[in-house]
């Protein structure tokens, strides 16, 4: 199992890492820039020393060679002020070095030393800050300078030194060298102190960011925790729970979406439970009737047996009809078989009329027939339309007129069946579209009460609705209104349909 790191910790870690990188980066850049300035200042100081050496040499008759061509890494070219590489006559290197040591002061945080013939001969009069009398250091400087003026870096006892080396050549052939060096360490000490303070402040800032970040991340994530807790509480038995929506941001959007999802689940779950209850109720009656008759049957009386047999078969027929209807309703409500394609509505209307007119009873008439196409599932629309025709034949009297027709206008396809039957009372006009709902029990004809529920489900699968105009004693007109263009089944359409059903309940 992968390591479980809470989101809060992850957010905080990301914030801290970014902040730390920022703080360290800012400190590092500031330190580097300041250090570069200090080093430039040191080099500048060494150049001034060189100028002093030159002017002193001028007065004392010493000439120094031309600037070196950077022999070591980090060496800076020395300005052209060192005029010529030609050695000049001078009595004695010792004299020259002595003179220089006297005239050129030892730099602050550094020191000077005079060499004659490669050997240390003179140290500054008063003790310098850094003692340059170190064999390894002097050897390194001599090697790097190799007879030229040089400003470069070398190590003395493990500490970096920036030095100026000025070789002197005297006529006797003696070689002398004047070295002045400055330790950047001392100059950088102040800067290091500032950086230390900065490091403490930065650490404090990190701690503050951690505290504030922890608190803010916790607050921001609290709806998620609440979401999880509520989701855990919701079970099939407690689908009416909803997560409280707080604020107006993407988390509240998420909460609303999840609430809507729970609502849909609740609807689907309740719908299933209702169907189950309805079915149990509807099947209980025929089963009781069958059982009652079978119990009372007089096996010795052939007439009674025959009568009961007919009755039982009739009830069983009714039950299988009911089961077939329930299956049809389930199919229509799931609408998995919904495949709309553009259909010629004129032809479809005539086809439905041709199929309906064989139903015995009414005087079938063909009403308006439009020309044009609409995107429908032909099989489903025909099924719904014929169901309405079947109802008209069932409920309107023998020989009364039933008109089947359709119109296409304003992007809406309207398919209607109008009869001159008994009509439907006002209070029943909504209810009859529900499962197992009938206007009045035992009104002549038998039926499951599922027909109109199936019609409504099929029309809703098309994104349409069913309208009823009726007047008691005059007749009824059922009209299915369907958008002419294709309607894609979306969650919103489903939700809208569910809301409609909910309101109707
Ligand atoms: P069923 O016809 O199986 O009872 P339906 O859902 O098709 O179930 O119809 C529900 C009820 O609506 C019917 O019982 C009937 O009372 C009423 N009804 C349906 N169509 C008509 C109609 N054309 N004229 C009068 N009443 C109707």
SSE blueprint:
Elements: H1 7-60, H2 93-103, E1 110-116, E2 119-122, H3 135-145, E3 150-156, E4 159-169, E5 175-182, H4 184-233, H5 250-296, H6 302-334, E6 341-344, H7 345-356, E7 363-366, E8 373-376, H8 378-395, E9 401-409, E10 412-419, H9 451-461, E11 465-471, E12 475-483, H10 491-504
Parallel strand pairs: 7-9
Antiparallel strand pairs: 1-2, 1-5, 3-4, 4-5, 6-8, 9-10, 10-12, 11-12
Helix pairs in contact: 1-2, 1-4, 5-6, 6-9, 7-8, 8-9
The structure holds adenosine-5'-diphosphate (ADP).
Provide tags for this entry.
505 residues, alpha+beta, 5-stranded antiparallel β-sheet, 5-stranded mixed β-sheet, 16% strand, disordered C terminus, binds adenosine-5'-diphosphate
């Amino acid at each position: 199992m992968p390591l479980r790191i809470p989101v809060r910790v992850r957010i905080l870690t990301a914030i801290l890492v970014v902040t730390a990188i920022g703080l360290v980066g800012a400190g590092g850049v500031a330190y580097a820039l300041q250090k570069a300035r200090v080093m430039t200042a040191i080099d500048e100081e060494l150049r001034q020393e060189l100028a002093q050496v030159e002017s002193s040499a001028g007065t004392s008759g010493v000439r120094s060679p031309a600037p070196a061509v950077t022999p070591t890494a980090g060496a800076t070219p020395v300005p052209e002020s060192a005029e010529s590489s030609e050695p000049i006559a001078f009595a004695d290197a010792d004299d020259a070095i002595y003179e220089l040591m006297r005239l050129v002061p030892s730099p602050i945080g550094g020191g000077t030393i005079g060499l004659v013939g490669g050997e240390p001969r003179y140290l500054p009069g008063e003790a310098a800050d850094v003692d340059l009398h170190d064999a390894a250091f002097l050897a390194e400087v001599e090697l790097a300078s190799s007879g030229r003026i040089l400003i470069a870096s070398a190590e003395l006892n493990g500490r970096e030194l920036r030095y100026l080396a000025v070789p002197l050549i005297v006529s006797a052939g003696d070689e002398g060298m004047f070295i002045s060096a400055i330790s950047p360490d001392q100059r950088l000490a102040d800067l290091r102190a500032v950086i230390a303070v900065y490091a403490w402040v930065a650490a404090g800032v990190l701690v503050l960011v951690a505290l504030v970040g922890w608190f803010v991340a916790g607050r921001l994530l609290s709806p998620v925790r609440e979401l999880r807790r509520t989701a855990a509480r919701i079970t099939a038995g407690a689908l009416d729970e909803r997560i409280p929506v707080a604020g107006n941001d993407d988390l509240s959007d998420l909460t609303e979406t999840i609430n809507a999802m729970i609502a849909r689940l609740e609807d689907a779950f309740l719908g299933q439970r209702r169907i189950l209850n309805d079915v149990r109720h509807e099947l209980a009656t025929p089963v009781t009737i069958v059982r009652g008759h079978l119990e009372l049957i007089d096996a010795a009386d052939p007439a009674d047996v025959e009568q009961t047999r007919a009755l039982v078969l009739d009830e069983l027929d009714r039950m299988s009809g009911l089961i077939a209807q329930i299956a049809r309703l389930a199919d229509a409500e799931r609408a998995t078989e919904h495949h709309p394609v553009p259909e010629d509505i004129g032809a479809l209307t005539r086809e439905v009329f041709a199929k309906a007119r064989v139903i015995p009873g009414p005087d079938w008439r063909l009403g308006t027939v439009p020309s044009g196409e609409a995107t429908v599932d032909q099989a489903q629309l025909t099924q719904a339309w014929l169901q309405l025709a079947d109802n008209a034949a069932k409920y309107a009297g023998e020989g009364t007129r039933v008109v089947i027709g359709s119109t296409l206008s304003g992007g809406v396809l309207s398919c209607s069946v109008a009869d001159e039957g008994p009509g439907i009372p006002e209070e029943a006009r909504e209810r009859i579209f529900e499962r197992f709902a009938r206007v009045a029990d035992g009104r002549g004809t038998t039926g499951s009460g599922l027909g109109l529920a199936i019609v409504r489900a099929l029309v809703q699968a098309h994104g349409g609705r069913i309208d009823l105009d009726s007047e008691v004693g005059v007749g009824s007109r059922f009209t299915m209104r369907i958008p002419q263009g294709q309607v894609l089944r979306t969650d919103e359409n489903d939700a809208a349909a569910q809301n409609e059903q909910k309101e109707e309940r």
